[in-house]
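Protocol step 4 of 6: record predicted structures for both targets in the notebook before any analysis. Target 1:
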Amino acid sequence: MLGLIDHGSAGNFHVENNCKKCLDEPYKIYFGLGQSVSLTQAPDVFKVSRAGIRLGNYLVQSLNPKNLNSSFLDIGTGSGVLALLMRKLGGNDITATDICEKSIAQAKINEHLNFKQPTISFFVSDLFDGLSEQRFQTIVFNPPGWRTPSRSLIQRLETRGRTGQLPIHSMFYGDEVISRFLNELPKYLNPTGVAIVGLNSLVGIRDILERYNQKYSNALPLTYKLIERHTLPLIHYSTHWKALEKHLKLEFEKWQALDLATYSTDKNGDIYWSYEIIEFSHHQK
């Protein structure tokens, strides 16, 4: 069971998404307080990463009955794991969105696997586009973790792309996605609500927040603070991205040289990055 043997360790437990042996096998993740979520795997939907487990752990630790009895929005739900976790904890007003129709279909399957009756509102949506302008008390977002790739890397990714593999936007273009999310967030967040966002240091956290500050001339519509930080090993998520490991490393090196990404490499050449859980909220008068 994930969330137990891997909890607190530095080993790489992640199974590649196209592992044929694993595709039809449900797996379970433990988050604490006796709560676990069962999931099925699909070849073009992310298996929950260690970062996703860390974010789920934080939700269990931090959300109180007031939060659980209020509106909850999970953006980029993927397998639906965080929305399902909120329902396990007693949430009864849960909305989950994803830009990928296959992810939403898989999330609905996973809700059926964990509960007898469906109650979560699932929508295909690019960030907030598919939603009416209602406000949510808690918004959770685990965005794509890597920056916009160079044209040469895009060509390599597209050349190696195959049916049933993860789409490029599922992990790249994170800097663009997060900037759009932050610009739209104030309209959808309750005045007393919080948005909990998990950011990968390979996306360029300093660059994103600096541009956010500059956009509003430091008169920010939202305030933010770092809640938790974890160092995690790089994984490649699919075999065809793994095959591009050399080119990915070159891309990461260019980003870091321009101060647009942060990571460390050990003596074996393995990359480690920082997973940072950041909380955004309205300024309180």
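Target 2:
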Amino acid sequence: MSKPPPRRTALINRNTNETKVQVSLSLDGGPLDPLPDNADFSAESVAPNAPIPAQTTNHHASQLKGSQQIWIWTGIGFLDHMLHAWSKHAGWSLRVRCRGDLASTSSPFSISSIEFFKSSSAATVDDHHTTEDTFLALGTAFTSALGPRTGLARFGHCYAPLDEALSRAVLDISSRPFFVGNFDFAAPMIGQLNSQMVHHGLSSWAMAAGVTLHVDVIRGSNDHHRAESAFKALAGACRMACARIEGREGEVGSTKGVL
């Protein structure tokens, strides 16, 4: 019996004057490596294959299962919700923690044996830097976890509804970064997130991930539903494009012979 292919994982630290972001990603789900210690965050004491720690407080962007581990804290609740939906339906395991220039950096939830921040000091700008740098870090993690772009389906597409809203995402793992998005949100804010940041965040991710991405909200009257259906469509497209094709190991899915 042949061995299963290795899981595709990455751990990224992105530090700027405005934000500090850590991302641990597995494109194939399962347990994640603990996030390391640095000047801005305390190390996690959970070993990658240890039993899943007890969750002491429910949080909208956390999920602790043997097949998938998701813990997300950016300081922006709606952004956490979108990243949770994306990673959940893409089949990823994902941890994100961020100290941004928001009004508060303290975590609203705790997981035993994990101290998210060494300091809860406040700094205030807005949601732009946190969103941009989180998506850039996630794009870098995606590229690192994917490794050589061989043996992949390469292309992915998905339609996703949420009640009255319907969105479509089309993805090409092309190494030709490009983004087109059509969202047409009615309101300037969705929760605590500036609605412009949905477009800007996904554009930032596409650039860092080296992918061509088109996301269109086809219809919908509720901005929350429009955004969430878009992220769920993206998740389905990612799952399809990242699939490894049996028998094509090492093959480049391009007439150029390189991606």
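Step 5 preliminary note on target 2. Residues 45-58, 105-123 have pLDDT under 50 and may be disordered. The chain is about 25% helix and 25% strand.
Proceed to step 6 after PI sign-off.
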